[in-house]
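User: I've been trying to design a sequence by hand for this structure and keep getting stuck. Would you show me what you'd pick, starting by listing the structure so we're on the same page?

Assistant: Good idea, let's start from the same input. This is the structure you sent:
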């Protein structure tokens, strides 16, 4: 039976692929999409989620807007990577899918409550919405099977030397979610930097030939240029769908059960993820941290999902 999931995201180029993979993988049952301020302001990420679903013909998945700013900090966006719209590159059509009026936290609570079996929350942006859900509705925890998050890193960061963007934007939210005791999987830069959109991958996706693939290629071309300027990388890493792949087929993204802590006070390391792989601190393990990626199977999965789109 397909795994029921909800995707919390901040589209964002790579978030688009996470949406398509979550909607298009036969072993996943995408029940809802919630948006958060992150790569762009909340109004932009919400608009973009509706655009991404419109392009792909995803019409039966409710989309609700969540937090417009982190728990206690001012929102910092990633316009240098994602452009002024947070989804620069393709011409963005007018969305044909409505916004759910409930708002993200209320919709998350209701979707969880009404589900017969526990759901997996996949988060590909700052964890603000998830932290608010857990704080406002702690009674819902038994309905959450796992939280699978793209964020953090076992090593270096991408927004500061040691902090990854999604964690750095709202580190307090990440700490709240981690402290909940729910099963928590972290898919960080150490693995997502293996999901590189090479020329060969780009050509494969272009060859699909549907409307989603054409849109995807325009996204990739903008993303590649942005990564070349900002990170000096020849091929851009498609971070977010790797967290979806972990839920769809865990053997593609092997994990280590280890100790994870979020840096909330460092002057140079705010938002860093401290992953104690060799148990130096002697603390109990609390997270399943992604350690590798089977890139060929990952790209097969992404290609197959986009083929199922419009
Ligand atoms: C993460 O930050 C965002 O820019 C991407 O969408 C991804 O979720 C990578 O650090
Ligand atoms: Ca994202």
């Amino acid at each position: 039976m397909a795994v029921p999931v909800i995707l919390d995201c901040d589209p964002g180029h790579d978030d688009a692929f996470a949406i398509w993979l979550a909607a298009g993988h036969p072993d996943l049952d995408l029940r809802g999409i919630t948006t958060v301020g992150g790569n762009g302001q909340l109004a932009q990420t919400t608009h973009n989620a509706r655009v991404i679903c419109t392009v792909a013909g995803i019409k039966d998945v409710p989309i609700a807007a969540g937090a417009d700013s982190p728990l206690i900090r001012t929102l910092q966006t990633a316009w240098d990577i994602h452009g002024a719209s947070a989804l620069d590159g393709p011409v963005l059509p007018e969305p044909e899918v409505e916004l759910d009026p409930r708002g993200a936290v209320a919709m998350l609570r209701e979707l969880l409550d009404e589900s017969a079996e526990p759901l997996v929350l996949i988060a590909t942006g700052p964890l603000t919405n998830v932290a608010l859900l857990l704080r406002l509705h702690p009674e819902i925890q038994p309905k959450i099977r796992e939280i699978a998050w793209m964020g953090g890193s076992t090593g270096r960061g991408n927004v500061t030397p040691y902090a990854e963007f999604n964690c750095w934007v709202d580190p307090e939210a990440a700490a709240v979610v981690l402290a909940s005791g729910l099963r928590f999987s972290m898919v960080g830069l150490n693995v997502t930097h293996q999901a590189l959109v090479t020329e060969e991958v780009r050509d494969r996706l272009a060859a699909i030939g549907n409307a989603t693939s054409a849109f995807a290629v325009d996204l990739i071309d903008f993303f590649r240029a942005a990564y070349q300027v900002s990170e000096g990388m020849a091929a851009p890493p498609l971070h977010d769908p790797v967290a979806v792949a972990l839920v769809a087929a865990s053997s593609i993204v092997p994990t280590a059960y280890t100790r994870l802590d979020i840096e909330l006070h460092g002057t140079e390391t705010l938002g860093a993820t401290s992953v104690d792989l060799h148990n130096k601190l002697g603390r109990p393990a609390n997270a399943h941290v992604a350690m590798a990626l089977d890139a060929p199977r990952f790209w097969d999965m992404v290609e197959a999902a986009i083929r199922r789109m419009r």
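That's my pick for every position. To get oriented when you compare it with your attempt: The chain is about 40% helix and 15% strand. The beta strands are 3-9, 28-35, 63-65, 119-123, 144-150, 184-187, 255-262, 273-276, 287-290.
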